[in-house]
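User: I'm writing a tutorial on reading structure tokens. Could you give me a worked example: one chain, its sequence, then its tokens, then a sentence or two explaining what the tokens reveal?
Assistant: Sure. Here is the example chain.
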Amino acid sequence: MTYYYSKYSYYNKHSYSEKKYEWTAYTEADLLGDHNGKSIDCGDTFPMPGSATVCMSTYDNDGYLSGDSSWWSDDKATDSTGQKAYIDGGREGGQLYAEQYHVLKGSDGKYYYLIEIEVEGYDAPGKGDDYFTFYGKVPPAGVELEVVSTKNVWGCMIDYRCLGAGDKAPENTPPEFTNDPKYGKICIDENSTFVIDLNAKDDDGDTLTYEIVGGEDADKFEIDAETGELRFKDAPDYENPTDKGEDNVYEVKVKVSDGNGGEDTTKLKVCVEDVEEQTGKCIVIEAEDMCEWGFSKAWGCDASGGKLVKLNCAGGQGKLWTTFDGPSGTYDFKIYAQDENDGQSKLKIYINGEFKGYIKLDRDSDGSGSNHGTFSTFVLEDIEINKGDTIKIYADGDCNEYVRIDKIELCKDDKPLGAIGDTVWYDTDRDGVQDDGEAGVENVTVNLLNGAGVVIATQMTDVNGNYLFEELEAGDYKVEFELPDGNFVFTTQDAGSDDAVDSDADTTTGLTDTIALGEGETNLTVDAGLYDPNDHPEPTDDAAKTCADEEKTVDVLANDSDPNGDTLTITHVDGQAITEGGEVTTSAGTLVKLLGGMLVVDGEDAYEDLDIAEHAMEDISYTVSDGMGGSATANLEMTFCGDANTVESFVGYMPETVSYKVADGLRNDPYEDVGYDILITESDNGRLDGVEFTAAYCLDFNRSITTGADYDSAAELDGDMFVFNDDTASSVLLASQNGVNGAALDNVNEINWILNQDFESDGTGSVDGKFSGWEVQYAIWELTNNFPSDAALNATPSNGQVEDVDYIVSRAISEGYDFEAGVGDIIGLVITPDPVTAQNAQPFLVGVEFETYDCLC
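And here are its predicted structure tokens:
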């Protein structure tokens, strides 16, 4: 809300009719945040802040804040009177004016108007340079706001009375330390860690945080961020100072922060004082050596040193006090006082003003009371006393008792004893770390040695491999493990980062490093791992053979073994490191992959020059590991067989004579569409023994052949085999044979082209999506005998479609006239009967895939 005040004084520096207007606002940086640009603009979003940060004011005579646009000015206030800018009470820049206003849509569904105010010649601090306030209603804190449109401000349209951004946040008051020592100096006893519990106040009630921010000995300290308790990380030793100056004065700088930019720092000098070491367990303070009020000294036969103190008046009151000069620690507080039988007097004990307990003299154990009487002992246990603490005793006498006191004894408890122990286990995987499932070893001898290296105790491990040496005083020790009978060795020492599960025994001696055992400490991390020493694996050489253009997978591990039963893995091939899924190239150029633990050998590039019937041998070494440090190497003798590089070399290794049977689809009832099939029962070089050709075609419709409905019923025939080309065609095709397009001898290329299209497997172009064996056969007969396919198929329509035959023939004539089968194609071979008889005169054409038979291996 805008506040305004009239200014009518003659002496006022402002115009007689000007009024003061005042409103709260934000800097542009308050709204931009990290995700917006350098200025508020359409599309920007930001949350409504909790409170305004700026108080703006001006003096004006018309009650309206002008814009910046007119015919004579731009980026300057339109109103030439008033509007001088005041920011937080200080005069800044020239005039202020409304540069533009932004329409905001809030996440609460409401719309708000944000006025952007610019000051001539002055920029707001931080990112952006303008100030912003609301016109009318102000969004609640936390509402998410989005700039949906921006408009220019013309003339005098902004009423000062409608400006405001809510209450301005009060100025932050920084915190202030309240108990840092005068001149920053504080002294503590050696061998203690507590320094001071720093306190600070904050008038704003902010949550305070403490931290160490400097000092040449800052690394020696730690502080509780919430409480301000400052401590040494390690208790300082007066005789061995570790401060930078080595003078037992440690410097540290501490800061307290309120989280809102307010902070205070203090620099402390912590002096460490020497403490006289006590030779006995108890510190004696004679009562007569203490300061006193209401007490007086007296002689007594049973008092230590013959001196005691007693109340000045029977049944009266008094107090004793002294400053403790012994080492800080926890003590049993013993007081020797006379307990008379005529009253129930009380003693109240205070340490540094803190009440520690009552001692009631109610035993009536020391008679009627006398300076020469006996004393009883009363104890308050476990009282913490630090060097420099004030010890006070308040006495309240009862029934004429004088409350005679002899002395105080402050006795530390006996030092607690510690223990050393843990486990001897069998390290199955030999990694030096006790894993889940690795069992303990029973009946292992374990010796405990003192700091001088003398064995002071011996134990045997239990059924779980555990041992424990107890009731040990603080000091240096070693543990010695003895190997049990059998073939055992110690596993790796200190292999892991976790001392609780690694092995601590030296692999040669079985001794641990020195163990510094503290008072009352139980160290259950001293272990030893054992295992049987490892034998190397025993791989066996392997041999394999493959065609040079084919990969060969060899399971070389199948015949390899390990004496310890360890699982073997291949780690090197040809002396090169390899992992599962990886590959190496041998020195001979062979590619070797490791897949599924097996070697996949590829010699295609290395042995591409080998021709059919040629061979090359390569020894490929491989190394196996048992995972336990053992390894060994064996060889894979790899034979690579050459593959045919030309049709001539391919044909050169085909059989010249064969025995065969012919199955005829027409002999079945109903007819089969497979045409003719041939089974090679025997070949002169054995290459085609047992091979069946389901795509076998007659080359002359007019010659006879003995066939069967299947191979069992077919007669076995003998014949010759050779390649079908222009050079051999005259031996199987008669000069009188004519095809649909001319002499049959001129259609060799067209027929070989048909063979390479494999129409029986690929139905593309067929009217019913499939070419039958008879359709292909009829097409070949049309090229060798001008066969009337139309009539044949009309007579036997189950054998195929006329359109399919015409399709094959027309394509063969147009596309196959210059075709010659080459490397990678289907090679046409002719089988002719020998001898030729009236019943067996038909030459057959079969297709042999080059890539299937181009290698002898």
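What the tokens reveal: The first strand starts at residue 3 and ends at 6. The chain has seven helices and 58 strands.
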